[in-house]
Amino acid sequence: VLPDDAMERLARRVAASEQRHTGQIRICVEAGLPTSYLLRHAPARERAVMLFGKLRVWDTEHNNGVLVYLLLAEHAIEIVADRGIDRHVDAADWAAMTARMGAAFREGRFEDGLTQALEEASALLVARFPRDASTLTGNELPDAPVVL
Fold it and tell me: Which distant-in-sequence residues (6+ apart) come within 8 Å of 52 by Cβ?
C-alpha cells in the first residue's frame, strides 16, 4: 500500500508533529487479522486495542498516545487514543477523522489520508498537550509506522 519512501515521510511527519506536543502517535498497518482473531470473529477494534498495548502507546508520561490502525484485508480503520487525550475529544471527532481517512483511501490516496489524520491528531494534541520548556519529555516511542 505504501512504498518505503512514503513510510519514511510519514515517520518524519510523526517526529515533526511530536516536537509541538507531548503526545505520541503511532501508525500501524496490518495486512490481515491473525488466525486466532479470525476464528473468534473478533472485530478490528479488538486487534487495534491489543496492539495499542503491545506497541506501548498507552505507556506515555501524559497518557496521551494515539494509535492509527489500518487493517487492509477488512478495509478497517481504527483510532485508539489513551485516556489523557481521549477525555478531551468527542467520539464523533475520532469518527470523522476515520471517515476522512477512509475517503482518501478509497481514492487510492493512502499517504494523503494518513498525513491528514496525523495532522488532525497533532492539532488535537497541541491544543491539550503543547510542548514547552517545562515538558521536555524525549521521544517515548518510535516514529516509524509499524507494518505487520
Answer: 58, 65, 67, 69, 80, 82
* Residue (of 64, 1, 54) closest to 31 by Cα position: 1
Query: What is the pLDDT, as a whole number, of residue 136?
Result: 65
CA separation for the pair 48, 29 (Å, rounded):
10
C-alpha cell at 50: 491489543
Cβ atoms of 10 and 118 within 8 Å: the answer is yes
Q: Which CATH class is domain 4-147?
A: alpha beta
Residue 107, helix vs strand vs coil = coil
- Any idea where the domains of the chain sit in the sequence? 4-147
Q: What type of residue sits at position 65?
A: G
Measured CA to CA, the distance from residue 89 to residue 30 in angstroms comes to 26
| 123 Cβ contact list (under 8 Å, min separation 6) | none
Instruction: Please state the pTM of the whole predicted model.
Output: 0.94
